[in-house]
Design goal:
The chain is an alpha+beta fold. 14% of the residues lie in helices and 28% in strands.
Length: 191
């Protein structure tokens, strides 16, 4: 798929992301790969492309693919919850709060793709999580299939950003949701 291929929303056949291709039920996002959204094209980004844009590397990168984004939203997919080398695994299990870390990595990717971090030229850190809700005791359940991570930038200014997020199973079951507050570290201050 070419990033410059544009197709207005709702026209032509829907193309599921490569992670969800053949999944039952089919990818429910309703986005088309190569489609034009609010202010930008949707482009499939694989794990290597993601790691070239965010600080999380190797097993610490919990995203497998990104298949769409707009100026304020991003949708990513992962199977990191099923990997034995997941660094958030504790005593052989992966708790639901790992979903918040996965979603905030998607937020970091969104910032990199939309130029938020470049615009402000400051390193960022997760300062707080708010409004957390989860409906599962653990995320490492094979029946969940590929996890869908959807993030929405709700607010942005020179001090930081607020992202809402939702983590759902392949069949659409909501697993974890909440908000993450990202703060920018002023340049010249120690980390």
């Amino acid at each position: 798929l070419r990033p410059d291929r544009r197709q207005p929303r709702g026209e032509g056949p829907a193309s599921p992301c490569s992670t969800c291709a053949g999944a039952e039920p089919p990818c429910r996002a309703g986005w088309r790969i190569g489609a034009s959204f609010d202010r930008g094209p949707a482009v499939l980004i694989d794990r290597a492309g993601i790691m070239s844009r965010i600080p999380h590397q190797g097993a610490s990168c919990l995203l497998d693919s990104c298949f769409a984004w707009t100026a304020t939203t991003l949708s990513a997919r992962t199977r990191a919850h099923l990997r034995e080398d997941n660094p958030l695994r504790f005593e052989g299990r992966l708790g639901p709060l790992a979903g918040a870390e996965m979603a905030m990595q998607a937020a970091a990717l969104h910032g990199a793709l939309t130029g938020a971090g470049e615009r402000l030229k400051a390193p960022a850190y997760l300062a707080a999580l708010r409004d957390l809700e989860w409906v599962c005791e653990r995320l490492d359940v094979p029946e969940y299939g590929t996890l869908h991570l959807d993030v929405v930038r709700e607010q942005s200014d020179t001090a930081g950003m607020i992202y809402g997020f939702k983590v759902t199973s392949a069949n659409g079951q909501s697993l974890v949701s909440g908000r993450g507050i990202v703060m920018f570290r002023p340049l010249g201050r120690p980390s």
